[in-house]
Amino acid sequence: YPALYALDGNALLELLTPQTLSRYTQPPVLVLIGYPTDLRFDTARRAYDYTPPNPDGKPMPDPLTTGRQNGGAPELLQFIETQLRPRIAQLAPTNPAQQTLWGHSYGGLFVLYTLFERPELFSHYIAADPSLWWHNGLMLHYAARARIIPNRHLILQKSGASLPQKANPAHNSVPPDAAERLAEQLRQRGIATEYRHYPKQTHGGLLAQSFQEWLDSIQ
To answer: So where are the chain's domains?
Structure first.
């Protein structure tokens, strides 16, 4: 089976109605990674779990919310690699050539971090509106030192108005075309990268659209 490992699983779960799943003759293996809460988003936990550490390996303060920490991505990645994926392998036969990691916003940062640091873990990566502005474009530093291995595929998606320009000065720390530039850089380095722009879609709306597009692609 094709398998999708998706962050923000609490929010995605409400999109998976019986009517939606009934369309698939061979349903995919969906691994929705979430938290034990009734909230759609556990913003404090995802702010830590989905963000990379400083290059020196230390956590950092979140640029959006005072008191929150960033930098826990290595811990979440270790959990996925050493506990979650082996457990899924016991439960369902999955196709190694169709293993996708999906994430939106801060989750998109985690997708890129995984691709750059541990590209062998998944065959396909989908970063929906990744927060490239985070810590003055620190993810671009990770991109410059990325490990490149063959047969890895990335879909990099950008909404038309990702975030309000006046929401926080941090959002303007990289050029508006940073995602498109990153896609071109990765293509030149050998990663099969597709850049998709959604001029009429909002940052929040792209979460559902991106997830649905992946589901539609495997029918």
So the answer is: 3-33+91-217
Rounded Cα–Cα distance for residues 137 and 153 (Å): 22
Which of 101, 210, 102, 106 lies closest to 163, judged by CA? Answer: 106
Q: How many CA atoms lie within 13 A of 28 on its CB side?
A: 22
**Does the pLDDT value for residue 81 go beyond 90?**
yes
The residue written with tokens 């998706």 in the block is: 6
CATH topology for 3-33+91-217 is: Rossmann fold (3.40.50)
Residue owning tokens 């075309």: 177
pLDDT confidence of residue 162: 46
Q: Is 90 exposed, middle or buried (0-12, 13-18, 19+ CB in 10 A)?
A: exposed
Confidence grade of residue 28 (pLDDT, cut at 50, 70, 90): confident
Torsions phi, psi of 80, nearest 5?
-60, -45
Rg, C-alpha atoms of the chain? 17
Structure tokens at 191: 């990663």
Confidence of residue 167 (pLDDT cuts 50, 70, 90): low
Q: Is 37 exposed, middle or buried (0-12, 13-18, 19+ CB in 10 A)?
A: exposed
